[in-house]
Amino acid sequence: MKQTIKVLLLLLLILFNYEIFLFTCQTVSETILTDDSSHQWQWMHEKAAEGAYGDLRNGLNLYDLYGEEYNGLWNVTEAYHYYGLYRAAIKAAPNPTDPDFTRMCQEQAAQALEYLEQIPHETGDATADAAIRKIKGRVSE
Amino acid sequence: MKCPNCGGEVSVNDVKCPYCGTPNPEGIRFQEEVHKRKSFNEYLRRKIEEQMRMPLLQRVLNLSIFFLLLIFIIQMFISVGIYVLTEGNVLAGLRRPKDYETQMAQMYEDGSYGELRNFMEQYGIEGADYPKYMQMCLLDFDYQEYLFHSMSCMEALEQGFLPGDYHFRYAIDTAAELLNPYIPAYPVIYPENQMVLDMWQEEIIVQLAGMFSLTEEEILTLTPESDGSYDYKSDEVEALLQKAEERLKKEGYQNETDN
Question: In angstroms, rounded to a whole number, what is the distance separating the alpha carbons of residues A132 and A21?
Fold first, then answer.
């Protein structure tokens, strides 16, 4: 009985040591040795090119990508946000029973359009610039 | 005792008389007895030793357990050390830049609340020490969630499809969280925060009205109770979701899977 317990304890210790060793190696390789930025950069640009602006915004937030090199991509999401707001405001504006609401929508549309036009589309990031130009082009559609 | 030959004093330990050398039968018998007992004791000792000595396997087992336990403890220390260095905030305070308050104020002024939140986390700056900033960071977290879902809905609508259930539901749900925030903006103490929240709320009302064909009255069911008390608006969210889906279908939007 005592022998059996010792064998079980030995097996458990082997398992625990193996798991901790794996965890340590994984943490070291993921946190210290791996540079994930190139993979993130590629993923973000794919989303911008595909027009998946919601996912792009979520990714930028999730990975806390606030470096200057990501300004172009943030601008893409801002452009689409203002474009969406503009479109929604234009659609919601006609409201004969509530002129205050109509005025609010018109003001939102004008402001969104102004912000959209202010977003630069020559940031040096070709994918981001193309996406911003495409979004701006949709306003006149 | 006396020697039978010369009469001299002979001890029981002597096998011969120390005076005349005559063999001492008593001494001989005594020494034989002692020798016998010594042999027997030696035999017993060996027997006990044999029984007490553990088999090789058991010794190996005990040593293995001891060393594995030692390795386990050392690895635990190393893992905790690595975790504290990489994830913990133990060293964060030491790395904090000298002008961190200026940087934080600038980020707040610029409206870069996400970057501000990241900065505070990175340098272990407690939100309780900067409640104005922390409050805005928390509200911005909800706003970014709203943007993620509303933008995804917009992408689907532009292609003529109804938004997927996940984005559809959470666009309205996150809108509800901003129109009726659990942690208010405290307009008297932090009017700047309230101003930004008002701006976001107006934007959300217009966007939900335009995107999902909802009326302002319907959207305002998501705002706080008249007595200002907080109540999670799950029924109202569900009701708006159904109305929005019906109206979008009437406008000709289809489920993407039906296409």
Answer: 47
CA distance A117 to B53: 89
Residue B91 confidence class, pLDDT cut points 50, 70, 90: low
B22: left (phi over 0), alpha (psi -120 to 50) or beta: beta
Predicted ipTM of the assembly: 0.79
**Residue A97: its chain B contacts at CB < 8 A?**
none
Distance CA(B88)–CA(B91), nearest Å, equals 8
Residue A73 confidence class, pLDDT cut points 50, 70, 90: very high
Residues B180 and B234: beta-carbon distance below 8 Å = no
Taking contacts as CB-CB distances below 8 angstroms, the residues of chain B near A32 are 86
Q: Given a cut of 60, is residue B259 above it in pLDDT?
A: no
Average pLDDT of B149-174?
Answer: 94
> Distance from A124 to chain B by nearest Cα, in Å?
22
Interface of B with A (CB under 8 A): 58, 61-62, 64-65, 68-69, 71-72, 75-76, 78-79, 82-83, 86, 112, 114-115, 118, 144, 147-155, 167, 202-203, 205-211, 213, 216
- Residue B94 tokens read as 């030491």
Phi, psi of B10, rounded to the nearest 5 degrees = -125, 130
The more confident residue out of B258 and A98 is A98
Which two structure tokens, joined as six digits, stand for B43?
Answer: 């035999």
Alpha-carbon gap, residue B151 to B140, rounded angstroms = 16
Q: Which chain A residues have a beta carbon less than 8 Å from that of B149?
A: 54
For residue B92, pLDDT beyond 70: no
Give A117's contacts (C-beta < 8 A, 6+ positions apart).
A136
Q: Which DSSP string do the residues of B126-191 spell out, in sequence order?
A: -GGGSHHHHHHHHHHHHHHHHHHHHHHHHHHHHTTBPPPHHHHHHHHHHHHHHHS-SS---TTT-H
- Best probe of the A interface among B66, B172, B206, by most A CBs < 10 A, is B206
Contact of B206 with A104, CB cutoff 8 Å: yes
* Inter-CA distances, A77 with A30, B54, B86, B172, Å: 29, 73, 31, 20
Q: Token digits for B123? A: 């340098």
